[in-house]
């Protein structure tokens, strides 16, 4: 039984091993986890233009990444595939849209399922040496350990260690119960600051038993005013869904224009510590998504 794999510019992809192998020379190159996933994703959609947002969602999923993570991964792939960053024969940059893998450089190859792609390692030349036979081990006599000695050993364990173990077990039990409770509890979303901004609507996701009046996004009023004006100028609307804990903010926003829509989900840790940094991240990612969307206006009557 054969397995279907992709070949890009004569380099065969092995997603599970994180390597590419040249079909003619047999040379093996190892890629990073996200680099091989990015190449596999581009190969799956060869001939199609994928936006930065689509690639980020498919490869990095819900992880928050740096501004240059995708660009650096593309640069690494071009180098590995012997592509030219200027000519861009294999992987092309589509300005203001995203990236495209040329279909003519991508092929489907059937590989025997039992033969995984492995790195070639030459075995060292080992000359056999005659060794004298090992002496037979002396028989081990069973030893009877009185139960009183074992009990005495347990008594020597400090009480602080025993107490720490019991507390740890208790915390694990409580954590498991709370996770099960959260999983099975009813989750609801409530609109926050209704009518506060003309083109932005915000919804807080929480347990049905949580305090409905807690609006954590009031700290973003200033930046939301700026974003709202940008949305008005581009005839766009934005919907925000968020859920907060003491250490984490799950923040998802969707932007819609008359001819396009985009969505981005972020998980931000320790979000209460540095307010300015948090505001900058939200503003930067919102502007990036807006800039990647097609520019269009509502049709005039």
**Dominant shape:** flat
CATH superfamily of the largest domain: Winged helix-like DNA-binding domain superfamily/Winged helix DNA-binding domain
Structural class: alpha+beta
How many helices? 7
Number of strands: 13
Radius of gyration: 29 Å
**In the CATH scheme, what's the topology name of the largest domain?**
Arc Repressor Mutant, subunit A
State mean pLDDT (0 to 100 scale). 75
CATH class of the largest domain: Mainly Alpha
Q: How do the strands of the widest beta sheet line up side by side?
A: 4-3-2-1-8
pLDDT < 50 stretches: 114-131, 140-151
Q: What is the CATH-assigned architecture of the largest domain? A: Orthogonal Bundle
Q: In what range is the share of β-strand residues?
A: 25-35%
Largest sheet: 5 strands, antiparallel
Please trace the helix and strand order, writing H or E for each element: EEEEHEHHEEEHHEEHEEEH
């Amino acid at each position: 039984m054969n397995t279907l794999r992709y070949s890009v510019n004569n380099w065969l992809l092995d997603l599970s091993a994180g390597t590419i192998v040249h079909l003619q020379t047999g040379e093996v190159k190892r890629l990073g986890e996200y680099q091989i996933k990015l190449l596999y994703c581009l190969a799956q959609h060869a001939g199609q233009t994928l936006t930065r947002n689509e690639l980020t969602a498919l490869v990095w999923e819900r992880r928050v990444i740096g501004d240059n993570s995708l660009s650096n991964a593309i640069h690494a792939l071009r180098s590995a595939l012997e592509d030219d960053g200027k000519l861009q024969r294999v992987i092309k940059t589509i300005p203001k849209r995203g990236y495209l893998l040329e279909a003519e450089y991508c092929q489907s190859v059937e590989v025997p399922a039992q033969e995984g792609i492995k790195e070639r390692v030459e075995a060292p030349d080992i000359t056999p040496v005659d060794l004298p036979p090992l002496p037979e081990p002396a028989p081990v006599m069973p030893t009877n350990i009185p139960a009183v000695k074992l009990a005495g050993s347990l008594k020597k364990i400090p009480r602080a260690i025993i107490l720490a173990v019991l507390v740890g077990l208790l915390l694990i039990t409580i954590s498991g119960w709370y996770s099960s409770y959260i999983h099975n509890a009813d989750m609801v979303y409530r609109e926050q600051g209704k009518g506060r901004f003309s083109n932005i609507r915000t919804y807080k996701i929480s347990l049905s038993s949580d305090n409905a009046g807690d609006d954590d996004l009031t700290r973003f009023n200033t930046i939301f005013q700026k974003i709202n004006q940008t949305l008005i100028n581009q005839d766009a609307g934005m919907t925000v869904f968020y859920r907060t804990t003491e250490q984490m903010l799950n923040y998802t926003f969707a932007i819609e224009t008359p001819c396009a829509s985009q969505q981005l989900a972020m998980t931000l840790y320790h979000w209460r510590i540095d307010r300015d940094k948090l505001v900058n991240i939200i503003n930067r990612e919102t502007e990036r998504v807006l800039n990647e969307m097609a520019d269009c206006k509502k049709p005039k009557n």
